[in-house]
Input
Amino acid sequence: MFGWKVAMARTCQGVVKQTRGGTQQSLPSIRCLQTHARNSPMAALRCLPPPLFHPRARGMSIDGAESEEDAHELSFYALRHPASVTLRELYQFGESTTNSQRTLLLAAQFLHEELPVRLARRARELRKLPFGLGDTTSIKGVRKLYERSFFRIRRFPKPTSPQLEDRFTEMLEDIKNEHSSVQANIARGLQELSEERTDLQRHRGGILQSQGMPFDFGQFLDRFYLSRVGVRVLMGQHIMLHHPQEGFVGVIQKKCQPSLVCQHAIEDAQRMCEMQYGTCPEITVEGSTDMTLPYIPEHLHYVFFELLKNSCRAVTER
Output
């Protein structure tokens, strides 16, 4: 669903991972956890493995990787592969958490082990950006933010009680809010580099080139933002399971109506076009307008809005 590709054994053994020293350890799949949660929540909790890399007992900075040990821990997690999670699995697992604190504990423990992998991989990718892009003030700030979030989760004790799970969820909500400006900062970093490097050429398709060496920045953005969406969905799903809304399972609307979401996107796109050009084209919705499906309405709205905004601009400027 979110581009997380990893071979997953749909059994109690879960996903087999290669660990330090050539040994192996398994991370349970969501489906495995769902099965145990339905039959015995405590059995599901036992299905989770111990952490692969234990946080150090001594105090650690929360400003990112500032020591050799910090960098080693970050690199270790960056080499691991994220688990594959589909929207269907999130929906089905979310339904099973109704009136079950134990299954919320199970989800929190999965995120406690999974989120550091995703955050570490993105921090490593930001550090390796070419042409000094990773050294710009804005992108360096984004990398530090990812590293700080990584260590906050790693230093937090494994949620083994309702009290710890509540605190863990509060921390996830804080991290999610801190990352709300990442998109703007990435764009600002590219602008900073363009101002500093007069030899940097920008081509169509997001290709950057300097001294004859090309870099597909557009491909990097696709990969980075796809991962960002995945992380935010995992966090948001768990957070919203603590704040249930009628007709929703976490952030997933049970009967999302695409035509209604599209109509709202049309109004927003027309309003923007009207402000920019003083006029806007007429847009009508046709097809199976009564169709519903379980989906995240915010994601649909974003897709519809971007398509309609670009279409309105093209029609108006023609």
User: Anything to note?
Assistant: The beta strands are 15-18, 24-27, 201-203, 207-210, 213-216, 248-249, 252-256, 293-295. The two ends are 36 Å apart (CA to CA).
